[in-house]
Amino acid sequence: MKKINFNSKNILIIVFLILLLLGNCDRTDYTLSNANESKEKLLKTAFNYAMAKDGNGIETLILSRTEHNEMFWDHVGEKFTSDPGMTPNLAFEHMNIESVIAWKELMVELEGRKSISFQKVECKMPSEKYGPFTLHRGCISTLLDGEKNESFINKKFRTLIEYKGKFKIYHLKRD
């Protein structure tokens, strides 16, 4: 067995690698695209896009593959799932599939409604912290159908992600 020579050069390389690995978990200099100043503004925009049947607009409000895989996942990783071996890409694909189905269900739910307006959001489950990110869970939106003058709830945007006081939709959820 070869003896490792712990000279100052090797020690510096080891320290640098350790700091690099630790630094990635403490990173807080991310840029989330199209993040909103409040949950309310985010969801008001989301429902406006939904009423316009603008799937591309909704997509800009949802955590992107890059944001999920290269930012959020660094702080969550396998702690977030009970599925051993879950990769960030596989987790994102799973969420994306659910989002597509939930978007189609939302279009059916809003079919025939001509005038809805966002009233409020209430997140009923405890928030979870993952490094610099906060996941707001169990969010329920109250909407007003202006034609029928009646309130109704929507649960498609149940999980919101917050980073440095700005909000995005984590992904659309099915009821």
Report on the architecture of this protein.
This protein has 175 residues and is of the alpha+beta class. Helices cover 42% and strands 22% of the residues. The protein is built from five helices and seven strands. The strands form two sheets. A four-stranded antiparallel beta sheet has the order 2-3-6-7. A three-stranded antiparallel beta sheet has the order 1-4-5, covered by helices on one side. A hairpin with a 2-residue loop joins β2 (128-130) and β3. α2 (39-51) packs antiparallel against α3. The N and C termini lie far apart (60 Å). The relative contact order is 0.17. Mean pLDDT is 85; it is low at 15-24.
Low-confidence stretches: 15-24
* Integer-rounded radius of gyration: 21 Å
* Structural domains: how many: 1
Helix content: 40-55%
Strand order of the largest sheet: 2-3-6-7
In percent, how much strand structure appears in the residues? 15-25%
Helix-strand string: HHHHHEEEEEEE
Count of beta strands: 7
- State the end-to-end CA separation: 60 Å
Largest sheet: 4 strands, antiparallel
List the total number of helices: 5
Shape: globular
The overall pLDDT, averaged over residues, is: 85
Q: Helix- and strand-based class? A: alpha+beta
